[in-house]
Amino acid sequence: MAHTDVFDDLEAEQQQLETVLAALTRDDWATPSAAAGWTVADVLLHLAQTEEAVTATVGEHGDPVRWHELGATVDEAMAALVETERGDGPQILDRWRAARRDAVAALRSADPHQAVRWVATPLKPRTLATTRLAEHWAHALDITVPLGLDYPDTARLRHVAWLGLSTLPYAFRLAGLPPAPVRAELTAPDGASWQLGDPAAENVVTGPAGDFCRVGAQRLAPADTRLRTTGPQAATALRLLRNYAVS
């Protein structure tokens, strides 16, 4: 896969989702999503709220959301935000459209070398854009799978796979384990081969990139995939793999 700009790919991922959302009916918006306790409208509200938080965090005055004041965990904080602002699906769609464009513009214009405060840890703008792409992709599945709608995997999953591998040391530490070098040999949606991670690592995960990314998003259990592991810590790495922030 040729090098692509993560900001362009974030916009493309959001546009793919917007095409799906624009065709939803009122009943669709009220359908339970794959995110426990949330409707389809709630999932998009969460994405709108977090995009607004991106703009607040990386904008000119840098006023980050204080997630810890909203709940004991990040998940609790996100749920509390959604609970306070539930509304009409089409109106939420308009809110998300504006929020996602503002967030991408803020990320593009931010100092690329200056990390900004974000949920569990400070992130540079390109890395934050990668996490936003991963979250939009995962929540797109939460919306489209229950509705039986097509949402094909694309080469943009390379960003998601990279994010999962790059955060593995943090995931190992959260689990009280010493980090282990890992590499992934993945088959892209178009059949290309992706080699990611430490090329000298003895811990190797091989298989479809879509499966790898779904495991990292906790949308699929490792045992339910076509992924294979070799090396003493590869199975543990796959179990700990995550494409999102936790604190």
Q: Which structural traits does this protein have?
A:
247 residues; alpha+beta; 10 helices
Derived structural class:
alpha+beta
Kindly report the spatial arrangement of strands forming the biggest sheet.
2-1-3-4
State the shape: globular
Low-confidence stretches: none
How large is the share of residues in beta strands?
5-15%
Q: Describe the biggest sheet? A: 4 strands, mixed
Radius of gyration: 18 Å
In total, the number of strands is 4
Order of helices and strands: HHHHHHHHEEEHEH
Give a short overview.
The protein has 247 residues and is α+β, with helices and mostly antiparallel strands. Helix content is 51%, strand content 8%.
Question: What is the topological layout?
Answer:
Layout lengths: L5 H16 L4 H4 L10 H19 L15 H12 L3 H21 L15 H23 L9 H10 L1 H7 L7 E6 L5 E5 L5 E6 H8 L11 E3 L3 H7 L7
Parallel strand pairs: 1-3
Antiparallel strand pairs: 1-2, 3-4
Helix pairs in contact: 1-5, 1-6, 3-4, 3-5, 3-6, 6-7, 7-9
What does this structure look like?
This protein is an alpha+beta fold. Helices cover 51% and strands 8% of the residues. Helix 1 runs antiparallel to helix 5, helix 3 (40-58) packs antiparallel against helix 6 (125-147) and helix 6 packs across helix 7. The longest helix is centred in the middle third of the chain and has 23 residues, at 125-147. The chain is globular and about 50 Å long.
